[in-house]
């Protein structure tokens, strides 16, 4: 059976933030893994996207600020997304969905505008560069569209965009689950939820006041993964085992109002 690698994303339900994500792996790492990148640089506004539905500001530290004009609700993302150090899908019978703090790190981003696209550098602890990826970000009607164009081989899995700040997380797990409280302890549960085996519907969502966002996995939903940790829900892109001879093909996640 042909499996897919995929990227998924989050969306504002009330402004209509869609994510269309794809990837084309390019071999090679253009950077020295020992190279350091200063993550303490001030955030710079790289570009503002605007139409009748949304105003989106894209910053150099990976933050997205989104204004839903219809409902007058403002959303923004965190500048950090928790990343796995290694390959998540190991090709065993059952995927290990629980993740340990020891196999993850807080991923920071440094973005720069390259023509019409954005080049993102993923940065681990001690400001060590993990790799880069190229992302197209644009508005299509009521949707904000992300399309990841290529990812370095040195990034075995990728959580991007960073999670949207939310007062509660909603996931279709079991009869449905709402996560309202953030963990105050340092070590909190971290879980990857694939569709079919953990999620019984193809979406992740969040709430804030009277507003909400929902991310819906569309084409490629059979390989849809969501990463949930400490009252955040994020899409996770999985690079499948090349050693197993599994071919990669594009996948789409479509997010609706």
Helix percent reads under 10%
* Mean pLDDT figure: 75
Main sheet makeup? 5 strands, antiparallel
Q: What's the structural domain tally?
A: 1
How many E-type strands? 18
What features would you describe in this structure?
With 257 residues, this protein is mainly β. The chain has one domain. 0% of the residues lie in helices and 41% in strands. It has no helices and 18 strands. The strands form four sheets. Strands 5-7-8-9-10 form a five-stranded antiparallel sheet, with no helix packed on it. A hairpin with a 5-residue loop joins β8 and β9. The chain is globular and about 45 Å long. The N terminus and C terminus are likely disordered.
In short:
By secondary structure, this protein is mostly beta strands.
List the helices and strands and how they pair.
Layout: E1 45-50, E2 54-59, E3 64-68, E4 73-76, E5 80-84, E6 98-99, E7 104-114, E8 117-123, E9 129-140, E10 143-151, E11 157-159, E12 168-171, E13 177-179, E14 190-194, E15 203-208, E16 211-216, E17 225-229, E18 233-238
């Amino acid at each position: 059976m042909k499996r897919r690698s995929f990227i998924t994303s989050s969306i504002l339900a009330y402004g209509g933030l869609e994510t269309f994500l794809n990837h084309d792996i390019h071999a090679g790492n253009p950077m020295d893994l020992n190279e350091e990148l200063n993550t303490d640089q001030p955030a710079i506004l790289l570009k503002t996207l605007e139409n009748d539905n949304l105003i989106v500001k894209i910053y150099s530290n990976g933050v997205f600020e989104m204004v839903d004009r219809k409902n007058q609700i403002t959303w923004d993302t965190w500048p950090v997304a928790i990343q796995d150090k290694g390959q998540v899908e190991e090709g065993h019978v059952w995927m290990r969905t629980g993740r340990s703090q020891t196999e993850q790190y807080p991923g920071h981003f440094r973005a720069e505008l390259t023509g019409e696209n954005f080049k993102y550098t993923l940065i681990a602890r001690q400001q060590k560069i993990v790799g880069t990826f190229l992302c197209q970000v644009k508005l299509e009607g009521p949707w904000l569209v992300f399309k990841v164009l290529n990812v370095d081989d040195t990034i075995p899995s990728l959580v991007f965009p960073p999670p949207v700040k939310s007062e509660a997380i909603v996931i279709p797990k079991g009869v449905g689950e709402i996560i309202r409280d953030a963990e105050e302890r340092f070590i909190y549960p971290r879980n990857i939820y694939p569709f079919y085996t953990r999620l019984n519907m193809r979406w992740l969502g969040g709430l804030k006041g009277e507003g909400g966002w929902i991310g819906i996995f569309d084409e490629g939903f059979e390989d849809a993964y969501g990463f949930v940790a400490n009252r955040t829900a994020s899409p996770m892109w999985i690079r499948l085992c090349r050693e197993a001879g599994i071919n990669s093909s594009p996948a789409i996640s479509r997010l609706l109002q």
